[in-house]
Amino acid sequence: MRTQTFTVPPQEVLTRDSVTVTVDAVVYIRIIDPTSSVVQVENAQFSTRVLASTTIRNIFGTKSLHEILSQREVIANLMQELLDEVTHKWGVSVERVEIKDVSLPHQMQRVMASEAEATREARSKLIAAQGEEKASRCLKEAAQTLADTPTAVQLRYLQTLNTISAETDSTLIFPIPIDITSSLMLSDYKSDDKSNYDDIAKTINEIERDFSAEPTLKHLSSVYLNEAKKYF
């Protein structure tokens, strides 16, 4: 015989965690033994409908709200098995059960919405905190690198000037680093004092050595060095 369907009247059920829900379901049945469906039960379809209602209340009453919302297909399969076990004696096969809807009271819906919003906000704050922690570690490592390598500050300075000069057509005025200007204050030296010139030469050699590993910055450092060498 053909498969028949019927809708189970909405059932109000108290879940295991004391939440009232309303459950709508659809049951698909087929008469497999017409004789038994008449002899074994007075009205096979009506009896199956009543049995489906009580089965919903029994199963959902043993589940928590979280289980009901996340395991609807599992619960539907369990209902199908339990119903078919009984109705098979009536000559009726329960082929399928579908949970159409699980409705919550409006107050519970507001509570769940607030809880979900709080969870999203907490997750957002956690991500922001993790980002700040990572940025702090990077800044700490950068500060340590600069502290361990004094010339890194000058390299970074010249690299920044190089980037600016490549992005703009404006004229840039490059201030001479203090370690050069301190040696080029020639007005404080006597022209016949060779030790002063030795200090200048030493400073120039150190700067040339520091910037030799940065080819892209050599043209910037050479500006300072060429000016300094004019005094020899």
TrEMBL record:
Gene3D superfamilies linked to this entry: 6.10.250.2090, Band 7 domain
Residue ranges occupied by any Band domain in the UniProt entry: 1-116
SMART domains, per the entry: PHB
Any one cellular-component term (Gene Ontology): cytoplasmic side of plasma membrane
InterPro entries reported in the protein's UniProt record: Band-7_stomatin-like, Band_7, Band_7/SPFH_dom_sf, Stomatin_HflK_fam
Top-level taxon of the source organism: Eukaryota
Family: Belongs to the band 7/mec-2 family.
UniProt protein name: Erythrocyte band 7 integral membrane-like
Biological source species: Brachionus plicatilis (Marine rotifer)
